[in-house]
Amino acid sequence: MSDLSGADHRAAVPPGQAVAAGLAACAVSVLTGAAVGALCTRPLLHARGWSLVATALAALSALVTTGSPAKAAVTGLVTGSRTGTAHLPLLPLAAASALACASAALACHLASRRGAAGDPAAP
């Protein structure tokens, strides 16, 4: 969408590296969003209003909180755009994958214990 160079137009960025970094950052964002969605889904939070508010606040905090994989990936893209380098966000990708898997497992476990109607399931 822009020049394949840094902010000062001196350092050229290889297109393959830029595309790979962008796709990896998209994957980090999708996985982080999936983790937020799994934990704020309706079987876990029964009221629609609370589920919506929790999802919006968690998604916002995933973008601005230090230590968030999504923020680290986006910050890496912005820094790379300024300096003319494209770094793959491999650590944020690994963290987002682990976070998504853990939150999906937790959501499945809690939803199965509550039962289909929201009542605690019989042991």
Structure characteristics:
4 helices, elongated
Topology of helices and strands:
Blueprint: H1 15-39, H2 48-64, H3 69-83, H4 90-114
What can you see in these coordinates?
Helix content is 67%, strand content 0%. With 123 residues, the chain is mostly helical. The longest helix is centred in the N-terminal third of the chain and has 25 residues, at 15-39. 20% of the residues are buried.
Number of helices: 4
Major sheet, described briefly? none
The structure class reads mainly alpha
Distance between the ends: 55 Å
Helix share of residues?
55-70%
Strand content: under 5%
CA radius of gyration: 19 Å
Total E-strand runs: 0
Shape: elongated
SSE arrangement, N to C: HHHH
Uncertain runs: none
Could you tell me the mean pLDDT? 84
